[in-house]
Write a structure and sequence with these properties.
The structure is a homodimer of 363-residue chains. Chain A has 363 residues and is of the alpha/beta class. The first copy, chain A, has twelve helices and eleven strands. The structure holds a DNA duplex (30 and 30 nucleotides). Chains A, B: Keywords: DNA-binding, Transcription, Transcription regulation.
Chain lengths: 363, 363
DNA sequence: CAGAAACTTGTTACCGTTAACAAACAGACC
DNA sequence: GGTCTGTTTGTTAACGGTAACAAGTTTCTG
C-alpha cells in the first residue's frame, strides 16, 4: 500500500577514492534498519525507537515504520545490538555431558521459560564436573556474550569455579546441594527431606531398618540422600547398615542389589534414584527375593517410566521441568538487580512420595 | 615482564564538544583490542592478525602481542567479530520439547563435537513438530546469527519448514526418516533394516509370526519400523497382525501390551522402542505370560538401562551420540562449501541386534 | 647495486545497532 | 504574544572487531 513518499537519500553522493559499495564476503544480506528508514521516510533512529517501544513516537509514524518493516521482512541484527548494548539476550547453561535424567529435563524447562522471556539458551557441557573444565565452559559462554549462566546439578567444584570465574556474569545453580549460603541464587531439591520421607515410609511399614543403595559419594545430591536416610534411622533407633559407593545407573544399582540380596536381613531398600532401583530390582529378582513380599524398594526421581518397572516403583517425585523454570526466573531476577547487594534467594523444593507397588508392610 | 616501550597514543587529543570518554551502561568492561595494541606498541590491526593466525606477522611482534594479550587477560568480543564477518561460530539445534531418549543423547554428541570445532550450540525447542513452530524456531536462531542448523529427529513437517525457511542457513537433519532425496544432508538410522533384523531374529527362533507394538504413526521413524517389520513377515509368508497407533513411552506400551497379552496366539512382539517394551513387559507379566518362555520381546534403541529390565531386553542398538557427531561433521562440511551445487550427502546407520534374555526359541 | 618481489605494518572505512545530544515543533501558561 | 515546557525527530558518535588498501621494510634477483 502507498504510504508516503520516501525521503531523498541524504548521504553524500561521492565517497572516498573507491566508490562502489562492493558486497562483503558470502551470505545473503537481509534488509537493515537504514532500508526500513528510507522506505518509511524517517531516520534510522526512529526505526530503532519503534523497535524498542520508545514512548515518544507519533502513532502515525510508528505505523508507517511497522509497515515498512513488514514489507521488507526486516529482522534486527542481534550482533550489532549486542555490540552496542552489551546485552545478548542469550543465556548459558552449563551441563554435565552424560545422559542423566534430571539434568536433561531441566534443560527443557529452562529453555521454554527462556524463550518466553525472549532469551535463547546456549549450552556448554563439561566432560567432568571439575574446576578447570567449568572455567573453560564459563569462558566459552562469556566470549559469546551470554547475559547470565545457569549451572545444572553441580558438584561443589562447579559452584566454586563459578564463584571464581573472572567474568562478572550473574549465575544461578539448579540442583545439587549446597551450604545454603552460596554466593549466588540456587534452586535445590531438599534431598535430605526426600530421603527422610522415603525412609520413614519404609519404617512405617514395619521394617526393622532400611538399607540404602547409594549414588556417587562425591555428588552432594547423593550425599544428602544418605544423610537424610541415616538421620531417620538414628531418630527411629534403628540399625544403620553400611553404605557402599555407587553411581547413578542401573548397572551400579545391580551391583549394590546383589550385595543386598545376599543378605536375608535386608527387607527394605531405599535407592538413590530410579535407575539404581531398576538394577536393584533386577538383582533381587535374580536372587529369588520377591518385591514387595520379601523386600520393599523405594526409588528417587519418579522418572517417566518408573511406574512400569517390575513391580511399579514407589518413589520420590521431583518436577525437574519446574526446577528449571524456577532457576530461570531466579536468574532473570538476579540479572535485573543492578548489582544490588540483596542476598541471593534460595529455593528449596521438597519431593513427594509416589506410592506404587514396590513397597508393602512386613508380615 | 618488560617488553618494549608502548607507542604514544596517536589519537587526536581533543574531540568534539563533549570530551570525557564516559562509560556506557552497566557491566564491567574487559580490555579490548586497542588496549592490547597500545601495550604491545602496534596497531590494532596487527593484534587482529595475531589472533587470526595471519602468516605475515614477524615472530617477535607476535610474541609481544601475545604477551600483551596475556597480561591484559584479553578476550575477543565475538559480537563485534560477528558483526564484521557475519559469522558467529554458533550453531543452532532444533529439538523437540520432551524427554525422549534419542534426541537428548544426540544433543550431547553434537555439543561436544561442536566444541571441538570451535562452535557453541544454541538450542531452540519446539512444543510441537509442526510447520509454524519450526519456522519460529528457525527465525529465533537466525536472529541470533547462527551459522547453521541441525534439526533433531524431525517429522516431515520439520524438514518441510526448514526447506521453506526464508533464511539461507545451511541445515542438516539427524534422525527421522526421509525420502533419501532431501534437499539437505541427513544422518539417519536405517529403521526399516533394524526392524527387519529384529523381526527376522524372532522368526528364526521359530515363532509363526511377530506382533508389533508400534510408535506414533505420524513419526517417520515409527512408520519405517512398521514397514520393515511388515516386509519381513511378507517375505517369510507369515501372517501380518494388525497394528494400533501408539506413542513412545511405557504407558503407551502398556496399553498395547494389554491387548497383545490377551491374545494367546501372540508369542513374539517387536516393540518400536525400549520404553514401549517396558510397558509391554509389564502388561505381559500382569497377564501371567512369561517372558521369554511364553512370549519373546524385542525393543529398539538400547537405552542405557534396558539390560536391567525384567527380563533384560533384547533390542536394536543405536549410537545416538555418534549420530550427533556425524550430523555435526556433515553440517560443517556443508557450511564450508561456498554454496556449491554438490548434492547433499546422506548417511545411513544400521542398528545392530543386542541379544539378551527377553527372546527365546519356541518350544 | 638497482629493481622487483615478498614480507610487515599501519590507516581508513565499514558491519548494524543504540546512546547522547541537538533541533524543530507543538501546546500551555501568564 | 512570548516564554516555557514537553513531544517528536534527526544527527553524530560510539560499540569492537575485520577487510581493503597503502606504505614502509626487507630480501631476493640479475
Amino acid at each position: 500500500m502507498p504510504t508516503s513518499d520516501p525521503a531523498p537519500d541524504t548521504e553524500p553522493a561521492a565517497q572516498m577514492p573507491f566508490a562502489a559499495p562492493r558486497p562483503r564476503s558470502g551470505k545473503v544480506r537481509g534488509s537493515v534498519m537504514r532500508d526500513v528508514a528510507k522506505l518509511a521516510g524517517v531516520s534510522h533512529q526512529t526505526v530503532s525507537r519503534v523497535i524498542n517501544d520508545h514512548p515518544n513516537v507519533r502513532a502515525e509514524t510508528r505505523e508507517r515504520v511497522l509497515a515498512a518493516m513488514r514489507s521488507l521482512n526486516y529482522r534486527r541484527n542481534l550482533a550489532a545490538r549486542t555490540l552496542a548494548t552489551r546485552e545478548s539476550r542469550t543465556l548459558g547453561i552449563i551441563g554435565f555431558e552424560t545422559t542423566l535424567f534430571g539434568p536433561e529435563s531441566m534443560l527443557y524447562g529452562i529453555e521454554s521459560a527462556a524463550r518466553a522471556a525472549g532469551y535463547l539458551v546456549s549450552v556448554a557441557t563439561v566432560r567432568e564436573l571439575a574446576h578447570q573444565p567449568v572455567l573453560e565452559a564459563v569462558d566459552r559462554l562469556a566470549q559469546h556474550d551470554v547475559d547470565g549462566i545457569i549451572a545444572i546439578s553441580p558438584k561443589p567444584a562447579v559452584t566454586n569455579a563459578l564463584t571464581h570465574a573472572p567474568t562478572g556474569l550473574p549465575c544461578v545453580a539448579v540442583g545439587g546441594a549446597g551450604s545454603g549460603a552460596d554466593p549466588f541464587p540456587t534452586v535445590r531439591v531438599d534431598n535430605a527431606t526426600g530421603a527422610r520421607l522415603a525412609t520413614q515410609h519404609l519404617l512405617d511399614l514395619g521394617h526393622a531398618t532400611v538399607h540404602h543403595a547409594a549414588g556417587p559419594p562425591d555428588w552432594p545430591e547423593a550425599q544428602a540422600r544418605v544423610d537424610g536416610w541415616r538421620d531417620t534411622l538414628y531418630a527411629a533407633g534403628a540399625v544403620v547398615p553400611p553404605v557402599t559407593p555407587g553411581w547413578w545407573d542401573a548397572a551400579a544399582g545391580y551391583e549394590q542389589g546383589r550385595r543386598l540380596a545376599a543378605d536375608p536381613a535386608v527387607t527394605a531398600i531405599f535407592c538413590a534414584n530410579d535407575r539404581i532401583a531398576l538394577g536393584v530390582l533386577r538383582a533381587l529378582h535374580e536372587a529369588g527375593r520377591r518385591v514387595p513380599q520379601d523386600v520393599s524398594v523405594v526409588g528417587f526421581d519418579d522418572m517417566p517410566d518408573s511406574g512400569y518397572f517390575h513391580p511399579p516403583l514407589t518413589t520420590m517425585h521431583q518436577d525437574f521441568g519446574e526446577l528449571g523454570r524456577r532457576a530461570l526466573s531466579l536468574l532473570l531476577n538476579h540479572m535485573s538487580q543492578v548489582d544490588g547487594n540483596t542476598p541471593p534467594s534460595h529455593v528449596l523444593v521438597v519431593p513427594e512420595v509416589i506410592l506404587r507397588s514396590s513397597t508393602a508392610p512386613t508380615r
